[in-house]
Amino acid sequence: MRITQRAVTQTALLGLNTNLSAVTKLQQQLTSGKQISTASDSPTGTNKAMLVRQDQNAALQHSRNITDGQSWLTETDSRLQSIVEHVHRVRALTIQGMNTGSTSAASREAIGIEVEELRKSMLNLANASINGRPVFGGPTVGSTAYDVETGAYTGVGGADGVPVQAIMRRVSNSEEIRIDVIGPEAFGAGDSDLFAVVGRIAENVVGDPATLSVDLNALDGALDRLLGATAAVGARAARMDAAAQLNSDLQLTLASQLVDIEDIDLAKTIMQLNQTEVGYKAALQATAQVIQPTLLDFLR
């Protein structure tokens, strides 16, 4: 088989171009800091990077959901704790009003006024809102959960035959956490409604002190319900905090995975570039020795 000078030249140039392409690619990687600039650089790596970025986007959305849920639960817990303190004060006043032997009519009148003011304060606390949505109103389109004048529940769910419609937040691919407590769940409904009970106490402490024992039992029942709702909110807040930590750890893990897939190993890449450049220069020298230009080459 005869090997022509042209074939030797083309083979040598092909090898040189291959080495030059390797040098160019390594220089580009050092400049960008990425080992994958286009999908053709590594189809498998590109696919892995896309999957990791998809997981990162999901984790970021879950993080926003967690932050929103924590705001709801913190506000709910704060309001419930304040209402519990008000109820304890109403209970103490009710016991004081039951002692008809040592409590004058004027004192009972003062107790009734204070209890009524506490009721109004509790209604204001029950109408707490976040971003214009009432915390205890469920998925209502209104701006309040209770009518401040009548104390009637104006939210959605848990009353008038409407089932509870929980507000949930997804905190991971497999977990959702409820962030709300609606009014009837925390404060009761109908005659056992906390605000109705406190309203009756405000009236009976003046007009019919003998019935305060019944009202006190009703108030204790409302307090137990309120404490149960507070405990439930606290448990959900603990779950939300745990989910926040897991989400933070997941984001760090995904970021590390993406670095491993896309970013270069600086020291390794510099070493590879030096070795490739040395090989390219050696190939140039060898080619120059093998392919000696003649006068005939210049005349062609």
Characteristic terms for this protein:
300 residues, mainly alpha, 2 domains, 8 helices, 4 strands
Please, could you describe this protein's structure?
By secondary structure, the protein is mainly alpha-helical. It folds into two domains: 49-258, f41 fragment of flagellin, N-terminal domain; 265-300. Helix content is 69%, strand content 3%. It is built from eight helices and four strands. It has helices at 5-32, 43-98, 105-126, 183-187, 194-207, 212-262, 266-290, 295-299; strands at 129-130, 133-134, 168-170, 176-178. A two-stranded antiparallel ribbon has the order 1-2. A two-stranded antiparallel ribbon has the order 3-4. Helix 2 (43-98) packs parallel to helix 5 (194-207), helix 2 runs antiparallel to helix 6 (212-262) and helix 5 (194-207) runs antiparallel to helix 6.
Short recap of the structure:
The chain is mainly α. 69% of the residues lie in helices and 3% in strands.
Number of domains: 2
Number of strands: 4
Order of helices and strands: HHHEEEEHHHHH
- CATH level 1 class label of the largest domain: Mainly Alpha
Spatial sequence of strands, sheet with the most strands:
1-2
Q: What number is the mean pLDDT?
A: 84
Shape: rod-shaped
CATH superfamily of the largest domain: f41 fragment of flagellin, N-terminal domain
Count of alpha/pi helices = 8
Beta-strand share of residues: under 5%
Q: What structural category do the secondary elements indicate?
A: mainly alpha
Q: Could you say what the CATH architecture of the largest domain is?
A: Up-down Bundle
